[in-house]
Amino acid sequence: MQLEWSRMQQARIDLVKKLFKQTVPAVDFASIRYHSDRDDQIAVRQGVLEPLRTVQDEGVMVTVHHRGGVGYAATSELTESGVRAAFERAVAWAERLGKSAVTNFSRIDMPHHRGEFKSPVRKPWEAMGLKAKVELLTDACNRLKRGSEIVDWAAELWHMRTDRLYLTNGGGEIFQTFDRMVPSLAVTANRGPETVTRTFGRMALCRQQGFEILIESGFNAASERIADEALELLAAPNCPEGKMDLLLAPDQMVLQIHESIGHPLELDRILGDERNYAGTSFVTMDMFGKFQYGSPLLNVTFDPSRPEQAASYAFDDEGRPAERQFIIKDGILLRPLGATVSETRADYDGVASARADSWRRPAIDRMSNLNVEPGKEFFDDMVESVENGIYMQTNCSWSIDDSRNKFQFGCERAQLIENGKLTKVVKKPNYRGISASFWRSLKAVGNSSTLEVLGTPNCGKGEPNQAITVGHASPPCLFANVDVFGGE
Amino acid sequence: MRQYFFDTADYINSLIEGGEVYTAFLSGEDSDFCRLNGGRIRQAGSVKQNELSLRLINGARHASATLSLTGNKASDQSELSSIVRELREQLAELPDDPYLLYATEVSSSDSMRVSELPDSRETVAQIVTKSKGLDLVGIFASGSIYRGFANSLGQRNWYACHPFNFDFSLYLRADKAVKTGYAGFSWADSAFDAKLHAAREQLEILKLTPKTIKPGKYRVYLSPSALNEVTDMLSWNGFGLKSHKTKQTSLLRMIEAGASMHESVSLLENTAGGLAPDFSSLGYRRPAHVQLIERGQYKDCLVSPRSAKEFGVSTNGASEAESPQSLEMASGSINLAEVPDVLGDGVYINNLWYLNYSDQSACRMTGLTRFASFWVEGGKIEQPLNVMRFDESAIRMLGDNLIGLTKEREMIMSSHTYGQRSVSSVHLPGAVVKDFSFTL
């Protein structure tokens, strides 16, 4: 089916196609990636509208593979001279340093597909006027002030729209447009030297949706709940220290998947590209196909096909068609998160995961949507199965070593599980462990009724640095005998 | 770019009407980036960008938008016209902002350096030649960075610098590596050779059998780079007025519970000595210094214009995030060469990694050792250390448990490039600390 594009979009597509045709150099491979981004952020803090943030960002990235080398150049000057100058810079990089490249880029078989994609938005950003948006947020914000000990409170909507056109010298032509929304609430309570913060959404709820996300995620009813929970936490004891079973809510599973499965499986990390910044990986190429990454209950997919998820797309930023793949099946590690260039360097099948955060940056290996597939357990049954444990919700702290082994994560809220029942609320819960042994301690996985589709807009990686949107869907999961502790 | 920005500002002047005021802030760069792995080229390229943030103010209402300037006059003027129209329409729908504050006293400035940068491609070619046989990984960034401010009151500020920053590591195997860097404004082969030589020497120590220590409390030395990770966490929310007034500062126990740091700890936002420009995106000029911590006691906050209005104090030109951009810590009395002796038995930490708060109210943070960290015994570096996780309060680290700071300090130019190349820097000594908790 042919998707419909606006007159403005069609005009930009035509312009970039014309510029590419006029300027593309005679090289082994050439591409141009055009981005037109519009970000709107509206926030109300303590009943007062914060300054509106609107970002309109447009530019192109050109890439060449030439004489064995690689070169890129990014510019916002969308004229024949601007794009021509960018190609000249890219070619100059490839020519001068081609002999010193990590691989012979000219021999990489780059994709040249044609296609399109559009986020499945039901209630678009424009469906609500500015005043109505401000009123909605003011109402959500005001409902957060539930006591004198609440010292700061805010509600926010962040909408991101991106149009991307990708053209190659082999006839590739892909146009994709993405609409993402991030709703969030935050409430902070204080008593003397003790402060706690409880949030909703924030950095864990990002989807390719319009205003339907507010209903589906429970945003409209969340203010009172998180405010009451913040006050409850302020009076709660610190999380106890000890080894116990750990039940993680989906809004903490997001982080657990991201840091201890997603990043270590990025092929560019395994190949060493990230060693100076984001780090390396404990995973080595010989582990694929046989390494027991988790218990047999662990099934992880790279799934760009779930329509509403944050990082769904039809093609990655190197033009490769995206399809769902098992990354870990029955606990066994199957394939890395590596796109065309890394896959060729490693000579191992990867996935369509080359992504760039803007026209300013080249594509690198990324996670996209990385999901834990649902198991068989109902939430209540998992709680009932625990004699001595703890249920943790909502990530607030994350730290993991550069090989992605030794991690320590913190959550906003926890509840003890004693003899199969959720009991006392405790504050400042933290836990630590080592990635593979932690996943091998997985003893129960929630069923599809417990699955939540979440994601974050701010995953940092790469040199030069990039922050990108990733999606993680997960049910709650239960882990055995984890090292748990609290605050001071 | 300077003249283009000022011409653009004049054009925006022609678009505003009646009692409207505008402010415009330009953040731009013309940069080269080359990423290396195994001493070879992974990605190499150039990025030219100029982001303009335009704020339209009418009475107590304001709205802003950020756009990418193309450098093409006709195209930029057309875009600006439509943005001003859109902002004007937004203003009609917005309530008055009780916390709006912008610079009304005109204070123009011009800070321009002449570029002494060499050709990036030739410099990288040299790096490749000199690192033959080494597993070198890193990023070379070089080129011009611009900041500009203009408003309809006639203020014009310009700042341009032309730094390079080669941030790199030499790997021995797996996670055993030496991290170093060479940054400045004028590339000198001899200086780079010296950096490379020093890193190679440390690489030799990494060849020794690594030591794994048990969790527990140890004496440690935090190099300026390692201490930078700690102060970076404190800078996240420690020094801003808003975080103090809303009790979210990680230094809460210094404010509410009488905690203090060691009397040798003094922290300064030293705009005069840093790389960042001395004007803000709203046109405020920054003072040369803001004393954040003086002899272990909390002193002043960084105050953005918005916080100033909200909490009824004066702004000191801080950014909206109220984070330091040119943080400086006073030096101490320990000679760098004597650090192993002062340490006795303990851990010499060159780099920390991935810090985060495990208890923000208590300023307790967790993170890991990274790159070349060594076990020291009897004042002698004995073995490289396998990765250890720590979990420790920074107030304790720089308070009761601080043994001393080094006389020598290091100026570290930020290598961060999220969105654009950073102009932040820190100037820090090293620190010897007792009872530092390793947990995993």
Structure description:
- The complex is a heterodimer of chains A (488) and B (440).
- Chain A is α+β, with helices and mostly antiparallel strands and 488 residues long.
- Helices cover 21% and strands 38% of the residues of chain A.
- Chain A folds into two domains: 7-235, PmbA/TldD fold, CATH 3.30.2290.10; 242-485, no CATH class.
- Chain A is built from ten helices and 23 strands.
- In chain A, strands 1, 2, 3, 4, 5, 6, 7 and 8 form an eight-stranded mixed sheet that branches.
- In chain A, helix 1 (7-23) packs across helix 2 (80-97).
- By secondary structure, chain B is α+β, with helices and mostly antiparallel strands.
- Chain B folds into two domains: 2-201, 2-Layer Sandwich (PmbA/TldD fold); 216-438, no CATH class.
- In chain B, strands 9, 10, 11, 12, 13, 14, 15, 16, 17, 18 and 19 form an eleven-stranded mixed sheet that branches.
- The radius of gyration of chain B is 24 Å and the shape is globular.
- In chain B, 53% of the residues are buried.
- The chains are: A alpha+beta (488), B alpha+beta (440).
- Strand 3 (53-66) of chain A pairs parallel with strand 3 of chain B.
Summarize the structure.
The complex is a heterodimer of chains A (488) and B (440). With 488 residues, chain A is an alpha+beta fold.
Write the SSE topology.
The complex is a heterodimer of chains A (488) and B (440).
Chain A: H1 7-23, E1 29-45, E2 48-49, E3 53-66, E4 69-75, H2 80-97, E5 114-118, H3 130-142, E6 150-168, E7 173-191, E8 194-201, H4 212-217, H5 222-235, E9 242-248, H6 250-262, H7 267-270, E10 300-302, E11 325-329, E12 332-333, H8 340-346, E13 354-355, E14 364-365, E15 370-372, H9 379-384, E16 388-400, E17 406-418, E18 421-427, E19 430-434, H10 435-440, E20 442-445, E21 452-461, E22 466-474, E23 477-485
Parallel strand pairs in A: 5-7, 9-16
Antiparallel strand pairs in A: 1-2, 1-3, 1-6, 3-4, 6-7, 7-8, 9-23, 10-11, 10-15, 11-12, 13-14, 16-17, 17-18, 17-19, 19-23, 20-23, 21-22
Helix pairs in contact in A: 1-2
Chain B: H1 2-15, E1 21-37, E2 40-58, E3 61-68, H2 73-93, E4 109-112, H3 120-130, E5 135-151, E6 156-161, E7 164-173, E8 176-184, H4 189-206, E9 216-222, H5 224-237, H6 241-245, H7 252-256, E10 267-270, E11 289-294, E12 297-298, H8 305-311, E13 326-329, H9 339-343, E14 346-359, E15 364-377, E16 380-384, E17 389-393, H10 394-397, E18 402-413, E19 425-438
Parallel strand pairs in B: 4-6, 9-14, 13-19
Antiparallel strand pairs in B: 1-2, 1-5, 2-3, 5-6, 5-7, 7-8, 9-19, 10-11, 10-13, 11-12, 14-15, 15-16, 15-17, 18-19
Helix pairs in contact in B: 1-2
